[in-house]
C-alpha cells in the first residue's frame, strides 16, 4: 500500500512540475506527404500537420500527443477551409530539414527541433520561428497552454487584430482576445468586444498575415516583452494558425477574407443614414423623431428601437404601454420611408408565463453548468437563461422566433447586443458552462469568444428567412473571425469625446483590414453628450464609414442632427446628403468586398506600402479605390496637415490639384472634411434622396477627374434589394480615363443583364488642363453644358446615354 501511495504522489507531483515548465517538440523522425498535406512526427510524440491551402496560404496545426482531433472551426462557412487546386507542389527531404515548395512559397521544417521558416520564391525570409511551437500543461484545466514565438524581421510593422483601440501600427504592444463588455473604454483598453485573431506583418516592403484560429482566451505580443520576438498563445485548444502571403497588404486581407468568406451584399438602404437612441419610446416619440427628419429634409433610412420597446425586456415581445399596435406603427413608418430596426439580446427572462422561456426550457435549449443546472445570470430582464447557439437545433429555433418581428410586424433589421456574452456584476459566464459546439462539446473557456458570432448567425438565419425575397440586415457587438458572413457591426459603448472620434477612425480601419468591413461607430458618442462641433465632425467621418448610425444613451442629452441648433444641423445635413450622393460608389465598394474580399476602408500603408512614410500614419484612409479621407479630430481646427500617397490628387471642394508623396494642408472649416479624389477617377453620384427608393433615379452624375495617363474605375449596379443579382441581374461598368495635354478619352465597358432606371449620365469634368471645345459620343457630336456643384464649382459637363462606349473631349 505504501508503494502505491508513493507512486501516486510521484504522478501528481510530476503533473504539477510539468505545469510549471515549457515543453518543446523533439527531433523530427519522419515527414510524410498525403496529397497536399504533410505530417511530421517527433521522437516525443509531437506532430505537425502542414496543409497547403493555396499556393499562398499554409496551415500549421500541432498536437502534443495522440492523434489529431476532428477538424472543425466556426471561422469557416463549412467548418473547414476550402482548398484550391495547385499547379505546382514539391516535397523534398534534405539532411537537416524538409522543404515544401509552391508556386509562391518555400517552407522549411527543421529536423532538429521542428522549427519552421517560410520564404517567398525570391528567397526573402517572411517568417522564422524563434522558439517556435511550445507549450505548458495546465494542471487545473487539463489544457495545454499553446504558444508560438517568431523572430521579428528587420523593420517589421504589424496591423489588424480587429477592434483594438490603439495605434494603427501594433509593434511594441500586447493584446488579448476575450470578448468583453467594456463600457466607456479608452485608448489602450483591452480586451474589447470582438475576437479576430488575424494580423498582418510588413517588412522589406513585403507583407504576410497570420490567422491564429483558436477560440480560447488568446494573447498577442508584437515585440513588447522582447524587442526581437513576436508571439501568440492561447489558454487551451490547438496551436493552429494560417500563414497568408501577400506580397501586398491588400492581398493579405483579401486572401484572409476569402478564406473566412465575405458577406453577401446588404440591401442598399442599409448603407443610408440610421438614427438610434437608448431608447426611443413611446410610439409618439418615435413618430416625432421620424417626422423631424422629414420636416427638415434630412435623409434617413432607419429608426431604431432599443430595449424599452419590449415588455419587461423580454425578447420578441412588445410593450403594450409604449407600443400597443406595433404592426401599424411599423407600417406607417415604412410609408414615410423608414425601416424599423429592433434590438435583441441573448438573455431570456426566467418567467413561466413567457412563451420563449417555456419553449427553451421544454426543449433543453439553454446553456447548462458542468453538473447539470441551467446557467443563470442577470441582465436587463433580471434573472435569465441563455440559449446555446453552438447547437444547430437551437439556432434553428432561435431563427424561427423572428417570424413575428419580421414577417408579421414588418421589422426590417435586428441588432444583437450584450452577446460577448455579458452578465451583470459577473462579466460573463463561468468557465464550467457547457456547449454543444456543433458536436464538438466544449466549455465556456472555448466557446466564449464565438458566442456572439453564433448568436449573430442564428439571428441572420431568421431575419433572412422571414425577410425573403428582400435581403436581411443584422448588426452585432461581438464576433469572431468569419463573423462578417452574418452581420454588420459597431465599435461599442464609446464616449462623446475628441479622443473617441480619433479612436472611431482607427477602429473602423482596423476592423476593415481584419475582414470586417461593414462597420461604424456610435456617431457623437454613446456616453455623455457632444457639443455641436464634435457632433458635426463625427457625422463627417461617419459619412465615409460603411455603417452610418448616430446612437446615444438616454442618460444624456438628445443627439439627433437638429439637437445642437440650426447652424450645426445644416452642417450635419450637408454630410448626410453627401453620403446619399455617394451611395453608388459605396455600394460598388461593398461589391468589391463581397466578391474579392477587398477591405472597404484602407489605411495609408495599404495604398502604397513601397512608401515607408505611410507605415506609421493613422488618420488618413481611403474608402474604396479613389476617395482619400482624413477626419479632423481636434476642436477649433480650420484644417489639418495630412499625407497624400504618391500620385496626383484633387481636393474635393476646390479641385485644387496636389502631388502626393508629401504632407499637404487641407483647409476644412466645419462644412468640410479633408477629402481628396485620385486623378483619373470616375466617381458616380446619385441625386439626393430622403431615403433609398424615395424617387426613381433617372440620371447618374459621373465626376471625371483628369489624369495625364490612364486610370480605371468601376460601377456595380443591381436592384439594391432581393437576390436577382445572384441570378445574373447585375451590371458591372468599367470606365477608363485617358488624358493628354489637349484631350481626354472616357471609355465604358459594361457586362451584365441588369437594366438600371437611369438612361443618361451627366459627365462632369474636373481638372482639365485645356479649354474643351469639342465633344463627341461614339462618333456623334455631343452638346457641352455646365454643371454647378454643391461645392460651388461650375465645371464643363456633357449629357450622354448610359450605354455609351466612348466620349471624346478635345
From TrEMBL:
Family matches, as PROSITE patterns: GLYCOSYL_HYDROL_F31_1 (PS00129)
GO process terms (BP): carbohydrate metabolic process
Residues covered by the Glycosyl hydrolase family 31 C-terminal domain: 597-683
Start and end residues of each DUF5110 domain: 699-767
Annotated keywords: Glycosidase, Hydrolase
One Pfam family recorded for the sequence: Glyco_hydro_31_2nd
Keyword RNA-binding: no
Family according to the record: Belongs to the glycosyl hydrolase 31 family.
Protein name: DUF4968 domain-containing protein
Native source organism of the sequence: Hymenobacter rigui
Amino acid at each position: 500500500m505504501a508503494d502505491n501511495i508513493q507512486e501516486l504522489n510521484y504522478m501528481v507531483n510530476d503533473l504539477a512540475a510539468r505545469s510549471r515548465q515549457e515543453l518543446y517538440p523533439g527531433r523530427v523522425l519522419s515527414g510524410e506527404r498525403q496529397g497536399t498535406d504533410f505530417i511530421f512526427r517527433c521522437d516525443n510524440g509531437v506532430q505537425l500537420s502542414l496543409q497547403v491551402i493555396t499556393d499562398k496560404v499554409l496551415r500549421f496545426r500541432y498536437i502534443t500527443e495522440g492523434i489529431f482531433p476532428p477538424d472543425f472551426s466556426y471561422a469557416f462557412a463549412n467548418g473547414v477551409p476550402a482548398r484550391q487546386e495547385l499547379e505546382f507542389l514539391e516535397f523534398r527531404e534534405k539532411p537537416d530539414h524538409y522543404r515544401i515548395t509552391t508556386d509562391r512559397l518555400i517552407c522549411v521544417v527543421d529536423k532538429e527541433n521542428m522549427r519552421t521558416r517560410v520564404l517567398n520564391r525570391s528567397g526573402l525570409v517572411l517568417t522564422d520561428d524563434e522558439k517556435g511551437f511550445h507549450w505548458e500543461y495546465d494542471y487545473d484545466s487539463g489544457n495545454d497552454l499553446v504558444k508560438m514565438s517568431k523572430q521579428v524581421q528587420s523593420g517589421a510593422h504589424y496591423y489588424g487584430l480587429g477592434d483594438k483601440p490603439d495605434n494603427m501600427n501594433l509593434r511594441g504592444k500586447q493584446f488579448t482576445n476575450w470578448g468583453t463588455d467594456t463600457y466607456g473604454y479608452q485608448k489602450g483598453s483591452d480586451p474589447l468586444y470582438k475576437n479576430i485573431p488575424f494580423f498582418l506583418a510588413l517588412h522589406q516592403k513585403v507583407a504576410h498575415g497570420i490567422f491564429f484560429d483558436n477560440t480560447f482566451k488568446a494573447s498577442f505580443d508584437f515585440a513588447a516583452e522582447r524587442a526581437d520576438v513576436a508571439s501568440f498563445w492561447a489558454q487551451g485548444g490547438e496551436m493552429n494558425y494560417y500563414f497568408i502571403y501577400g506580397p501586398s497588404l491588400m492581398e493579405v486581407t483579401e486572401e484572409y477574407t476569402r478564406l473566412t468568406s465575405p458577406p453577401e451584399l446588404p440591401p442598399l438602404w442599409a448603407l443610408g443614414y440610421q438614427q438610434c437612441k437608448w431608447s426611443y419610446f413611446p410610439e409618439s416619440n418615435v413618430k416625432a423623431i421620424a417626422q423631424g427628419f422629414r420636416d427638415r429634409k434630412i435623409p434617413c433610412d432607419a429608426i431604431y428601437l432599443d430595449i424599452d420597446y419590449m415588455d419587461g425586456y423580454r425578447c420578441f415581445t412588445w410593450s403594450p404601454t409604449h407600443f400597443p399596435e406595433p404592426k401599424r406603427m411599423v407600417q406607417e413608418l415604412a410609408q414615410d420611408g423608414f425601416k424599423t430596426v429592433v434590438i435583441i439580446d441573448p438573455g431570456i427572462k426566467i418567467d413561466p408565463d413567457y412563451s420563449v422561456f417555456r419553449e427553451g426550457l421544454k426543449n433543453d435549449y439553454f446553456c447548462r453548468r458542468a453538473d447539470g443546472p441551467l446557467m443563470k445570470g442577470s441582465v436587463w430582464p433580471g434573472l435569465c437563461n441563455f440559449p446555446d447557439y453552438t447547437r444547430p437545433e437551437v439556432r434553428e429555433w432561435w431563427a424561427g422566433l423572428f417570424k413575428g418581428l419580421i414577417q408579421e410586424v414588418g421589422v426590417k433589421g435586428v441588432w444583437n447586443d450584450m452577446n460577448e456574452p455579458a452578465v451583470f456584476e459577473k462579466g460573463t459566464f463561468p468557465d464550467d458552462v457547457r456547449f454543444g459546439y456543433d458536436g464538438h462539446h466544449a466549455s465556456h473557456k472555448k466557446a466564449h469568444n464565438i458566442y456572439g458570432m453564433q448568436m449573430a448567425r442564428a439571428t441572420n438565419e431568421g431575419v433572412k428567412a422571414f425577410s425573403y425575397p428582400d435581403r436581411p440586415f443584422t448588426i452585432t457587438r461581438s464576433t469572431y473571425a468569419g463573423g462578417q458572413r452574418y452581420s454588420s457591426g459597431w465599435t461599442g459603448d464609446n464616449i462623446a469625446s475628441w479622443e473617441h472620434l480619433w479612436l472611431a477612425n482607427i477602429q473602423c480601419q482596423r476592423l476593415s483590414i481584419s475582414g470586417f468591413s461593414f462597420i461604424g461607430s456610435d456617431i457623437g458618442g454613446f456616453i455623455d453628450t457632444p457639443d455641436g462641433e464634435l457632433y458635426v465632425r463625427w457625422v463627417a467621418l461617419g459619412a465615409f464609414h460603411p455603417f452610418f448610425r448616430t446612437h446615444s444613451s438616454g442618460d444624456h442629452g438628445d443627439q439627433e442632427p437638429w439637437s445642437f441648433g440650426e447652424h450645426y444641423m445644416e452642417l450635419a445635413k450637408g454630410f448626410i446628403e453627401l453620403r446619399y450622393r455617394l451611395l453608388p460608389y459605396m455600394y460598388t465598394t461593398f461589391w468589391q468586398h463581397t466578391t474579392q474580399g477587398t477591405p472597404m476602408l484602407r489605411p495609408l500603408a495599404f495604398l502604397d506600402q513601397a512608401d515607408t512614410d505611410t507605415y506609421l500614419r493613422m488618420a488618413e484612409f481611403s474608402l474604396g479605390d479613389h476617395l482619400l479621407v482624413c477626419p479632423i479630430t481636434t476642436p477649433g481646427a480650420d484644417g489639418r496637415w495630412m499625407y497624400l500617397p504618391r500620385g496626383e490628387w484633387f481636393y474635393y471642394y476646390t479641385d485644387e490639384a496636389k502631388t502626393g508623396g508629401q504632407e499637404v494642408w487641407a483647409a476644412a472649416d466645419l462644412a468640410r472634411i479633408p477629402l481628396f479624389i485620385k486623378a483619373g477617377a470616375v466617381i458616380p453620384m446619385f441625386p439626393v434622396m430622403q431615403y433609398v427608393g424615395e424617387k426613381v433615379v433617372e440620371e447618374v452624375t459621373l465626376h471625371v477627374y483628369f489624369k495625364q495617363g490612364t486610370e480605371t474605375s468601376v460601377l456595380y449596379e443591381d436592384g439594391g434589394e432581393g437576390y436577382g443579382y445572384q441570378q445574373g441581374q447585375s451590371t458591372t461598368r468599367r470606365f477608363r480615363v485617358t488624358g493628354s495635354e489637349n484631350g481626354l478619352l472616357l471609355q465604358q465597358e459594361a457586362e451584365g443583364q441588369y437594366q438600371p432606371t437611369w438612361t443618361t449620365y451627366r459627365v462632369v469634368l474636373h481638372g482639365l488642363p485645356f479649354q474643351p471645345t469639342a465633344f463627341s459620343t461614339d462618333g456623334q457630336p455631343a452638346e457641352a453644358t455646365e454643371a454647378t456643384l454643391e461645392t460651388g464649382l461650375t465645371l464643363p459637363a456633357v449629357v450622354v446615354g448610359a450605354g455609351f462606349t466612348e466620349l471624346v473631349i478635345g
